[in-house]
Amino acid sequence: MFSYRHAFHAGSHADILKHLVMIHLLEYLQEKPGALTIVDTHAGAGIYSLIDGFATVSKEADQGIYRLAQFAKNNSVSPGIENYLACIHSENTADEITIYPGSPFILARLLRSHDRLKLFELHPKEIDILRHNINQLKQTKQIDVYAEDSFTRLKGLMPPPSRRGLVLIDPSYEDKQDYRYLENTIEEALHRFATGCFAIWYPCLSRRESASLPDHIKKIATTHKRSWLQVELRVENAPKDRRLQASGMFIINPPWTLEKQLAESMPILVRALGQDGGAGFVLKSFEA
To answer: Is 276 a catalytic residue?
Structure first.
């Protein structure tokens, strides 16, 4: 859906959850010396201004990264949250956050010299901005940018040459077909690369496709005899409000360290970002 621009949601509570998990996954996988291939299936523009443009329309960062950063100034937070905030502050000057790095920039900054990053984006305007932004990075030669449909292209990249990889799948879900495409993509990817780490972001919405997605992914992972972890963050419970109030991450083949890190971090995120008594989190896992 070409109406979707991630800049509207940069620095939101959903970004915080997604990037907190993503950073931990990447750094765990980098503890082994072998090269990694990292794939971001819906890359967006890569990095966003929070003081002009689309982000100032939605102002989702006000209840997201700004709120968490302020909380961290006055309260102790988990090592995982500290690590995440360090990645955000590294793109900004002094103590002010005016820039929010999306997944492509966070991943690019963390690449080792022998890792590769593959970015997909279909939006005709976003892809040009993404290419421009990536070309400013010193890691640009390690990064491939594709103006292609990642759902159809991903299976051709599996397994990566080193057979070590992290795949971040985070469509907008504005097109209801994204749910079906995602499930088919995961099924195909696991057939080709059963040991890969797959991290799927999803919104928690009332629509049928959204509510059933985690169970569908669980069934796929279980059929392939893969371990999984599910985490959700809800910042409020206002049924009549159309804003996104909760989102989740579903990880197939998660590292054993992730659940412990999230058990420490999620209660803090609820305290920092919760807007009413309905705020809370879900943390489930299955060991194959």
So the answer is: no
Angle (nearest 5°) at CA 91 between 90 and 93 = 85
Instruction: Give the CA angle between residues 60, 61, 62 to the nearest 5°.
Output: 90
Residue 35's SS3 state is: coil
Contact status, residue 139 vs residue 11, Cβ threshold 8 Å: no
Angstrom distance (rounded) from CA 147 to CA 119: 9
Q: Which domains does the chain have, with CATH numbers?
A: 6-224 (3.40.50.150)
Helix (H, G, I), strand (E, B) or coil at 141: helix
Evaluate if residue 269 carries a pLDDT over 60: yes
* Entry pTM: 0.96
In order of 84, 210, 257, the CA distances from 29 in angstroms are 16, 29, 11
Tell me the pLDDT tens digit for each residue of 19-32.
999 999 999 999 99
Quick one: angle between helices 103-110 and 126-134, nearest 10?
A: 20
The alpha carbon of residue 285 and the mean position of all alpha carbons in its chain are separated, in whole angstroms, by 18
Residue 181, both tokens: 């495409």
- Among residues 113, 109, 103, the alpha carbon closest in space to that of 36 is found at 113
Which entry of 15, 115, 170, 178 is annotated as an active-site residue? 170
Residue type, 263: A
pLDDT of 222-253, one tens digit each? 999 999 999 999 999 988 888 899 999 999 99
Q: Which two tokens stand for residue 211?
A: 């509510």
Going by C-beta distance under 8 Å and a sequence separation of 6 or more, which residues neighbour residue 47?
91, 99, 100, 101, 102, 104, 105, 133
